[in-house]
Amino acid sequence: MELSQGYSEVSWLRRRTWADWLFAAALLAGALFALNRYGHFMDYYENAILIGAVPVFALLGWHWRASRVLMAGIAFFALSGISLYHGDLARANQAFFLKYFLSSQSAILWMSALFFLATIFYWGGLIARSPVGSSLGSTLCWAAVLLGFTGMMVRWYESYLVGVDVGHIPISNLYEVFVLFCMITALFYLYYEQRYETRALGPFVLLVISAAVGFLLWYSVARGAFEIQPLVPALQSWWMKIHVPANFIGYGTFALAAMVAVAYLLKAREQKKLAIAGAPLGTGFFSSRLPSLELLDDLMYKAIAVGFAFFTIATILGALWAADAWGGYWSWDPKETWALIVWLNYAAWLHMRLMKGLRGAVAAWWALTGLLVTTFAFLGVNMFLSGLHSYGQL
After folding, report:
1. Which residue ranges does UniProt annotate as crossing the membrane (predicted)?
2. Which domain holds residue 109?
3. pLDDT tens column, 226-237
4. Which of 205, 262, 297, 329 gives the lowest tally of CB atoms within 10 Å of its CB?
């Protein structure tokens, strides 16, 4: 058994093509360039993360080849934007490409517009049964993710132009994490879109992303949230760099699962009506356009499983961060309490799925209700409650 497993691993490595190894080499070269150029801004922990990201992203690129083009595009556009600053933040309103395309604010606005357009084209493709419309929706979604990540990378650099003591990873406030949420949700959807070879779920998933973009734009205009601010003392910790991304992988995949649940419920309800009427099950609007209920159920389960794993990691990291910052692992702060409620909700969902065979409409309604619970934990706590996490209030 061990010999066959070892042979399988060797065989897997031998199946790597020259393009695979070239991609890995490019990642390593990029990491070394970043260390040489920006290493003096980073501590030992950040240097370790940068080096450790090389094999992680290499494996991602080997497994999901479309992500290679995305990573290359992010590197190209982010470095192009950074190079145009010449160390002067004022150039964001002077250099043409920065002002209209590559400054963080411009790139994130483009991301927002492209997500809205992607939603329209996805729905147009679904309603008209147009592969061209759905394909355009997918392309626009990829472009939105590209510009969103470009904006975040450039914003990271801009924070250091504001002041070396101000510079930080751009995941510290609601504006930045809403951008992160949009991109993570879209990325996981795009992966499953290719994995299951269907674009019929794009209209549903893009609805929740567009809602997040709508909040992001309101928050930017009403509160001037796009302005880069120094970190409050509670966030001046390396724990933030791993806790927040893990948390939002959970939020993004939970949102994805909820929108798949919406599609499941619509199709199941329509099929029930068709069965009562004695009509063929594939003749309805949703029945003829959406994937099978079995596939939707499987995707819902996989999204929740991935989200639960990362949310568990994020919760553990949050407890360690709390011990470091406040001297205790748990204090029943409203944010902590609601994070626990979210965790228990999805733990119960997975338990019922794996132990009791939970399927169908009950599982879908539960996943959809889970989005409401998660939204309150993510946003509602900041709006209506106060506590140790009050620095994140609206």
Report:
1. 21-38, 44-62, 69-87, 107-128, 140-157, 169-192, 204-222, 242-266, 299-323, 335-352, 364-385
2. 97-231
3. 888 888 877 777
4. 329
